[in-house]
Amino acid sequence: MKKIIVSIFIFLISLNVYASSGAIKQSSVISCDGIYYGSHADHWHTVKKENGKYVIKDNKELEAPSCYINKENESEIVELSKCVDGDTAKFKMADGSIKTARFLAIDTPESVHPTKAVEAYGKEASEFTCNLLTKAQSIKIEYDKASDKTDKYGRLLVWVYADNKLVQEMLLREGLAKVAYLYADYEYTSYLQEIEKDAKNKKLKIWSDENITNNMDATETDEFAEEETTNSIFDTILNLIKDFICNLFKKILNS
Fold first, then answer.
1. Could you give the domains of the chain?
2. Active-site choice (127, 155, 173, 174)
3. What integer is the mean pLDDT of 44-48?
């Protein structure tokens, strides 16, 4: 009986450890002196590789490792091919190909969503971005060292500069965007969050009515519903297993 009880405790602990060890994007993993570090949201952890994926090895939050701090972001000059909306555009690359780019770390109100109505300030955000890019003498895109270069839709994930002005920053200053989709410790996150805080305090545009940002939150959830559903199913199964074992454990103690 004691062996059964001990086995149950070990199994429950292993489930909790596994559940807390979230997967880390390979692009966010870096090796320093033989130790692997992974960026998650705004902090770092030591990670290990399991079943072909990197997972959190230690839940202790760490500062960015020195080899990451010294690493430079890659960038390239592009030309505007087509305006799409406030946080998306099509660029002509150096090799002549046309690629869609999603502006990293921000979200603007929808203006061209195939299944969503135009949101408040969606057209304003789209026009603002298009105006910046159309009038720019030069456009540069920058890949963040902590981010994948593309998302699951094949879009480039980049910082965008119009005449050396960061487009994400300009949108936030105008109250036409919010900081969003933070999956790693991106280069300019803290800086942009301060700008967002200022626009929010001033109640500029999307911050003038909480219903506007609530609607944006709903759209954001829809866009990543597939990933969230997968995680939700796993969590549900995990909780069912844990509940079953806990009930079994109670019956053993009462018998």
1. 2-69+224-254 (no CATH), 74-223 (2.40.50.90)
2. 155
3. 87
